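Agenda item 2: PBG complex prediction
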Amino acid sequence: MTSVPGRVRPRRLRATPALRRMAAQTRVVPAMLSLPLFVRDGIDEPVPVASMPGVVQHTRDSLRRVAVQAAEAGLGAVMLFGVPQMRDATGSGASDPDGILNLAIEDLVAEVGDALVVQADLCLDEFTDHGHCGVLDAAGRVDNDATLVRYVEMARAQAAAGAHVLGLSGMMDGQVGAVRDALDADGRTEVAILAYAAKYASAFYGPFREAVASTLVGDRRAYQMDPANRREALLEVELDIAEGADLVMVKPAMSYLDILADVAAVSTVPVAAYQVSGEYSMVEAAAAQGWIDRRRAVEESVLSIVRAGADHVLTYWALELAGWWDESRGL
Ligand code: PBG
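Presented output:
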């Protein structure tokens, strides 16, 4: 950096909205955003998620309608999560072609075609009766390699249903390679993989557990990353890219902007960030109390994630942000 000779007055470019617009270094556009959506089996009306004001569990019909809105708003994608009625030890509903998630993928692809990217969560926690992201061994631990077999079955079902992007969120070692091999062997070379590469064992997933009616007792620290670790994120990213990830993700976002910046600096594939349920609920709760300006906080939070290096952001505010978007100003 050259030394600044005292003639530059940084405030000059902050003086008017027009100057600020001209000088802004980061812009958020709807195409960068993905809206996470929940679809629940066996309901006739959308069910509000109490811990996430404004978020609902969708019926298959209301899900289709919101996907059309997302496409019309110019969003980049939706990320779909299923909430089944029945759960079992191996999460069999996840790979059942008639399971709620796979049916909903089919619905969405039929509805929006190529106007919107359909991403699907590929993980077992919504489908297992114990709530873990994999199958358990005799000692009750998540069995990495037995889980990979289930992920491959789930990937085949999601690809058959027409998903464009599979979001591998289980944090098993080797999951990207196992799924990529299976997709390629089936001739599904066009199906992309979004690897939740640096996914931390975070308290900020709390409200999501209600959204998917998770039955988990305990935590996921034996497979998700330790919040204390920074270098390890690069190891995970390197492994996932080597195994064939088309995009890599950092999750959560706001408490992990250092990780996001590190990953963005080295990744050779696009970098996504997931602004998770707890991040959403904290802002909503504070705004409901009148303690912060809701719109400004929402915009600033997503802008910061993009500034840190995200090319793609999953956020529960995606649709609302697109509504606020002004082509000439960005967000
Ligand atoms: C796992 C999954 C989780 C989230 C997305 N995918 C839960 C977890 O890992 O505990 C959390 C997303 C959020 O909090 O918004 N299927």
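Discussion summary: The pocket of PBG is lined by residues 121, 123, 125, 169, 205, 208, 220, 276-277 (CB under 6 Å).
Owner for follow-up: CH.
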